[in-house]
Specification:
Elements (H helix, E strand, L loop, with lengths): L4 H4 L22 E3 L1 H7 L2 E6 L9 H14 L4 E5 L3 H13 L2 E7 L5 H9 L3 E5 L3 H13 L4 E2 L5 H7 L1 H10 L5 E5 L4 H12 L5 E7 L18 H6 L3 E5 L1 H15 L9 H8 L6 E6 L7 H7 L10 H9 L2
Parallel strand pairs: 2-10, 3-4, 3-6, 4-5, 7-8, 7-10, 8-9
Antiparallel strand pairs: 1-2
Helix pairs in contact: 3-4, 3-7, 4-5, 7-9, 8-9, 11-12
The protein binds ligand AN7.
């Protein structure tokens, strides 16, 4: 049986014997070598494959802790604003806990797979007229009223859970890599990685990669104008890197074609930054945050439609040769 993340890292998490554990088998995700990209970039590249988490993104690490702690305090409902993955994860863990989830998402801006998850888990999903930032402000105001526990990464329990990715990486490599690379949306994951490193009393370069046009990027998961953790990120020893949508899409396609890993576009932001400025000779861990199946429409924008053929071997051979 998969060991729940809270059990695996119990001594480093704010949980006690009385905390009810809400787990879906999160964490303990694969750390995969990336031989072709490593060769191209002249680095030793490892990929922390977070889509292997139960809801398909790294959010589950924090959500298992946040929902368990909410349940411990007697909450009967959680609330979040989300570009999609926090919502899908909150909806899944709330369903598992037997409590309600209220999701506020920017109207028309959430990838279809993520929305399908939230709906199937029975969350109340409301589309807010406005941006993610507007939805987050509303979620915070509502949480203040005490009816719902806020499970955005402003909830410190989220960060506690997310820091465990660093523990796993260091465990598995047997040493701290030279460089960690993560995408930068609201900055929760960046702060969590810094926290994980600091708790291990280790140092490494931590590169956090944002979209050049935060308000309009194709990478909808990180379409966040004002990162909630901006000030904390600025106060930490973190390098911020900025990439264009074209660079994100190129890195995204390369990961799929060269390494056989299909992530969502935002997850490729870190790889895009590495491509621009590879730290040659360094051992690098890039965290791939979410699964490609969450955003099938993004793939349809860049990949050609399949040809339609008759079930005739000659026609098929001819069509295959033309590909
Ligand atoms: C796949 O779900 O903000 O810098 O509401 O879904 O910790 O915000 C998602 C963010 C990276 C950015 N990769 O991480 C949400 C949300 C994926 C994401 C990020 C997100 P943070």
């Amino acid at each position: 049986m998969t060991v729940p993340l809270i059990e695996r890292f119990r001594d480093r998490l704010p949980v006690g014997a009385e905390t009810p554990i809400v787990s879906l088998g999160e964490g303990s995700t694969p750390l995969l070598p990336a031989p072709r990209l490593s060769e191209r970039l002249g680095v030793e590249l490892w990929l922390k494959w977070e889509p292997a988490n139960p809801s398909g993104s790294y959010k589950d690490r924090g959500m298992t802790v946040a929902v368990s702690k909410a349940l411990e305090r007697g909450a009967s409902a959680v609330i979040c604003a989300s570009t999609g993955n926090t919502a899908a994860s909150a909806a899944a863990y709330a369903a598992r806990a037997g409590i309600r989830a209220l999701v506020l998402q920017p109207e028309g801006a959430v990838a279809s797979g993520k929305l399908a998850q939230s709906l199937m888990h029975g969350a109340r999903v409301l589309e807010v007229r406005g941006s993610f930032d507007d939805a987050l402000a509303a979620a915070r105001a509502l949480a203040e009223r005490g009816t719902h526990a806020l499970v955005n990464s402003l909830n410190p329990h989220r960060l506690e859970g997310q820091k465990t990715a660093v523990f796993e990486i260091v465990d598995e490599l047997g040493a701290v890599p030279d460089v960690f690379v993560v995408p930068y949306g609201g900055g929760g994951n960046t702060v969590s990685y810094a926290k994980g490193l600091s708790e291990l009393a280790e140092r490494a370069r931590l590169v956090s990669v944002q979209a050049a046009d935060r308000r309009r990027t194709v990478a909808s998961a990180i379409r966040i104008a004002e990162p909630a953790h901006r000030e904390v990120v600025a106060s930490l020893d973190v390098e911020i890197s900025t990439v264009t949508d074209a660079q994100i899409l190129e890195a995204w396609a390369q990961l799929a074609k060269l390494e056989g890993l299909f992530c969502e576009p935002s997850s490729a932001a870190g790889l895009a930054a590495l491509t621009l400025d590879p730290p040659r000779g360094a051992r690098v861990v890039a965290t791939i945050t979410g699964h490609g199946l969450k955003d099938p429409d993004a793939a349809a924008r860049v990949a050609p439609e399949p040809l339609v053929v008759d079930p005739d071997p000659d026609a098929i051979a001819a069509a295959a040769a033309g590909a």
